[in-house]
Amino acid sequence: ATMKPAVEKAKPVFLTKAQREELALQRLEAKRVEQEEKAKIAQTAHNNFITGKTLEDKKREERLAREKEEKERERRVKEESKESKERDHEVKAIHEHYLGGGEKKKRITKPSDKFAKIFQFDWEETDDTSRNDVNPLYNNRVKINALFGRGYIAGVDQKEQRKDSNFLMSLSEKRINEANRYEDTSEILTEEQKRERARAREEAAQEFKRRRIQELSSLDKQVDSKMGSHWSEKALADMTERDWRIFREDFDIRIQGGRATLPLRFWNEANFPPAVVKAIEAAGYEKPSPIQRQAVPIGLSGRDIIGIAETGSGKTCAFLLPLVCYLLRLPKEYIDRVQAQGPLAVIMAPTRELAQQIEEECIKLLKFTNFRTVSVVGGQSIQDQGFTLRNGVEIVIGTPGRMLDCIENNYLVLNQCNYVVLDEADRMIDMGFEPQVVAVLEAMGGLLKDEDEEQAELQLKQNEGAETAKQIFRVTAMFSATMPPAVEQIARTFLRHPVLVRIGDEDSGKNKRIEQRVLFVPEAQKKSKVVEELRRMASSDKVIVFVNSKKQGDNLGRHLDTLGYHSGILHGGRSQDQREETLDQFRSGEVQVLVATDVAARGLDIPDVSHVINFDCPNKIQSYCHRIGRTGRAGKFGTATTFLTEGDTEVMYDLKNYLESTSTPVPSQLAHHAAAQAPVGTRDDKGKLLGTKKDSVQYIS
């Protein structure tokens, strides 16, 4: 009985069709009501979103309105307070004006005014109280008579001192009068003898005065000639310290460190051997250049030297002349041993072209000697170079890499090499030759001078009379445009008490004789622009066009050839024979335009280059400096044109500073460019990278 309701409930209920339809309608109605509620909520939310006035927005607006009202109330209170103060001041001023009663401020007396009347004297502050003093020492000052009237006081004009000095004349007259009185009292003379003696004394006194006046006059003339004449008109013995100072200022010579010798005025004062004098005359060197005037005497003295001078200043001759003189002073047994013991001097240069150029200059100076030289560079057969080395040479010129190869392959030994020259030392370091340079220097057999300067001076004197290899100490000459840390490290290691010679001011490496032009040119218009620049030049002008890549150089060279320009291409991808032929053609004028990479930017001496064009702007300012230094050499003027694009941001800051330092107008587009305002990678206080492209000012032409 208890199970019956549950069973009944579990049984399925069968509905009629009408019941089922009624239930379906109820479900649809409930669903419709639910959807209408959702639509209402959505519409309300949509309306609130459109009007922007949600509950939070309304609260925020109310809060802002209250704050605004409070601020307005405070402003009105301040204005009322200000107006009240102004009214009070006005009332007070009117009251004081008509009724008086203003407070009198207490005057504070300064200490200087308070005690001014205590020290009252009979003279003014401007009066000289030392005059008319009762003490005669102040009126009659003691005169110093150095060396009994023959000497002089330092710092005072000698001519003026001679005018005021009568001590010697007075002393002589006094001694003569005393001698005369002694003679008159010691002898008995007749009147005739007395008159004769008086006449002789008068003549002697007149003769003494005449000689003294003549002596003073000749001294004045000598001083005037020494002080007034130019150093070029004086004999070497008459040169004073002041003359040498003026001489160095005239040629902008600055020396630092070491014990520098006096500079060289003329070739005939250097006491060169006859063979060197003939070579100088044959080469047509009329007068020394500034670097030669100071570097040659230092080299002749056997001291180490670091020379820094602008391009085209004659640095090659500055180190070759002392080197040749050094070889001529050596005993004959050293020259006889070169085949077995190796060369006597080594010159290292960064590039093949520079090494061969030094060799050509060296051959000129060795013309009247029996010394031999050879260039050891890449691109040529090492076997042929080794054969020449085994036959014996006195001077070896080469690049560090090939020279080290010759040493490691036993083609070259440096057992008696005591003279080494590093030309363009900073360029060798930049090109990655530091290990090779150090290895070659360590392979040399000569001894380094002592680190103690006094001991090193004694060793220099030993060098003059050396008879054995152990007594000869190494001489190192380093020439560089800059002094990076790696070059300084080499100098500290292998140079002893070097004399640093700079030609020019701190910006001596900056080419101030070159007209620099910077043009903003789109990349696609560079070729047409370079042709436009070439058309402006005379047919006899020599032009170097610098590019950053070998491919760009080949493309530009072919483009210029198709337009009828006689152009040559110079880069590291060409063979040694091709490079030498191109340089010879350019020097002779057969080729007017030389398209080159940075291989031609330093060291090469190509005369009469009138224009340099940077088709591709270098990414370092040092490369820019050396590129434009191919023109304006040896005191001449030149022009350098640089094509700048928006992609050259890395160099813009340094380029702008360089132009300013050489007094060159900076183009407006470069001066206002964002990349020119700070060095690459600089960030501001917030960490933002400066000089980005979005900060640039775009110029539309």
Automatic annotation (TrEMBL):
From the Swiss-Prot or TrEMBL record, give the protein name: RNA helicase
Q: Which UniProt keywords apply?
A: ATP-binding, Helicase, Hydrolase, mRNA processing, mRNA splicing, Nucleotide-binding
Question: Which residue ranges does the record annotate as region Disordered?
Answer: 43-90
Q: Does the keyword Hydrolase apply?
A: yes
The processes (GO biological process) annotated in the record are: mRNA processing; RNA splicing
Q: Which residue windows are coiled coil?
A: none
Q: InterPro entries annotated for this entry?
A: DEAD/DEAH_box_helicase_dom, Helicase_ATP-bd, Helicase_C-like, P-loop_NTPase, PRP28/DDX23-like_helical, RNA-helicase_DEAD-box_CS, RNA_helicase_DEAD_Q_motif
The beginning of the lineage is: Eukaryota, Sar, Stramenopiles, Ochrophyta, Chrysophyceae
- The superkingdom of the source organism is Eukaryota
Top EC group: hydrolase
